[in-house]
Amino acid sequence: MISNAALVHPYAKFSTADEWRRFAYVKDRGPDGSFADLGTGDIDFPRIFSHGREAGVIEYIVERDSEPHPLDTARVGYDYLRDVRFRTC
Predict the structure, then answer these.
(1) CB 28 within 8 Å of CB 36
(2) How would you class 82 by CB atoms within 10 Å of its CB: exposed for 0-12, middle for 13-18, buried for 19 or more?
(3) What is the Cα 43 distance to its own chain's centre?
C-alpha cells in the first residue's frame, strides 16, 4: 500500500512501480491520525498523484479502514478523485 501513514514518502514507491502498481489504494488521514474520507484529511494527494501518473498508475481505489457510512465514504472518495485527477493532469 502507498501511504503516508506508513511513514514512507508515497511518491518514492512509484519509482519502483511495476505492472502490479498500476492500481493504487488510497486512504486519507485526519489531523489526529484517524482515518478520514478521501480528500477531507491532511494528505497531499495532488502531489502524490502527479508522481503516480509519471510512474504509470492508472487507477486509484478508495479505501478506509473504519467507514461509519460506506456509501457516503465511496461517494466522497469518487467525487474527490474525479475532481483532483483532472486538475493534476
Answers:
(1) yes
(2) exposed
(3) 8
DSSP 11-55: HHHHTT--GGGGEEEE-EE-TTS-EE-TTSSS--HHHHHHHHHHH
Strand partners, 62: 26
pLDDT per residue of the chain (89 residues) written in tens, 0 to 9: 444 444 556 656 655 556 656 788 888 999 998 999 999 999 988 888 887 777 778 888 888 888 788 899 999 999 999 888 655 55
DSSP state of 4: G
- Predicted TM-score (pTM) of this structure: 0.69
Q: Which helix (H) or strand (E) holds 2?
A: none
Alpha carbon separation from 33 to 4, 5, 24, 30, 82 (Å, rounded): 11, 8, 21, 5, 25
